[in-house]
Design a protein that fits this description.
Layout: E1 5-10, H1 11-19, H2 21-29, H3 38-58, H4 65-79, H5 92-110, E2 119-130, E3 134-146, E4 150-155, H6 163-169, H7 171-184, E5 191-199, E6 202-210, H8 212-230, H9 258-261
Parallel strand pairs: 1-3, 4-5
Antiparallel strand pairs: 2-3, 3-4, 5-6
Helix pairs in contact: 1-2, 1-7, 3-4, 3-5, 4-5, 7-8
């Protein structure tokens, strides 16, 4: 009898695969410590503040902006001492100001559009498909399950992304809405994923719709990744195009392309 292999992909794994398959392989074969940057601090701190507020709402407490600021301060106190020496994209003072602006924007402009959440930071792990030889699972953590809107997710980018690119190629929305369909059993329903960008006090709200055709395409995409995984290749295809393949963003740069180009391959502006 053939032993069935259990294969799991995180939602973030699928996102990494979009950027560079070899980076994904190395995340498992040769994991490197994450170089904490002020960009990551900004996003993580705002997430922590929103999570604290959402949990208060679930517990029946009145939401206040002071609760968000207090949660943010605790989070900042933990993160800032751990920022990597190469991770200071902004000063601490400027990063703190952006965090405060984004919290105020969320509280004033986003929160009024939301309901008391069913869950915040909701983990999931569901079977995508199985054969005699493998059982493939997808897992992740949803930011905010809204009883009316559906899945709502927060981003803290430096600039506004192109909505058409998200509508066409965003994989996080597909995975999260597929997971919600697994949980309530309605696989035929078209659902909405609300991607909220908090950009230094401005709000950009993109609504992405996904349904059964998207879930079928997701299954095919993951199946292709499973075949790559099972091939046991010593290296996967590398992607140089785009922002990710650089010493600034990829934790594997030093042991990959950086072996040939060094740690400062281009002018600082690139």
């Amino acid at each position: 009898m053939v032993k069935q292999e259990v294969i799991e992909f995180r939602q973030s794994d699928l996102g990494t695969a979009e950027l560079c398959l070899e980076a994904l392989r190395r995340n498992y074969a040769d994991p490197q410590p994450e170089k904490l940057s002020t960009d990551l601090v900004r996003g993580n701190v705002v997430h922590a503040a929103i999570e604290a507020l959402g949990q208060d709402m679930i517990d029946g407490k009145r939401p206040t902006i002071d609760r968000m600021f207090n949660a943010a301060q605790l989070s900042q106190d933990w993160y800032f001492p751990r920022v990597h020496e190469d991770g200071w994209r902004e000063t601490q003072e400027k990063t703190e100001l952006i965090i405060m602006n984004n919290i105020e924007a969320f509280f004033e402009d986003v929160l009024p559009e939301l309901s008391v959440p069913d869950a915040v930071e909701k983990p999931f792990r569901h079977l995508l498909y199985e054969t005699e030889t493998e059982a493939v699972y997808l897992k992740g953590t949803r930011d905010w399950d809204d009883p009316i809107l559906g899945a709502v997710d927060w981003k803290n980018p430096g600039r506004k992304p192109a909505a058409w690119e998200l509508q066409r190629g965003d994989i996080q929305s597909t995975v999260y809405l597929w997971a919600m369909a697994q949980e309530d059993g309605d696989l035929d329903k078209t659902r909405e994923f609300h991607r909220v960008h908090l950009i230094n006090g401005d709000v950009d709200w993109v609504t992405i719709r996904r349904g059964p055709k998207d879930y079928a395409a997701l299954t095919e995409k993951v199946h292709a990744m499973v075949q790559l995984h099972k091939a046991k290749l010593p290296v996967w295809p590398m992607t140089w195009k785009g922002w990710y393949c650089s010493p600034k963003w990829c934790d594997h740069w030093d042991n990959c392309r950086g072996l040939h180009l060094g740690d400062k391959p281009w002018p600082a502006s690139t």
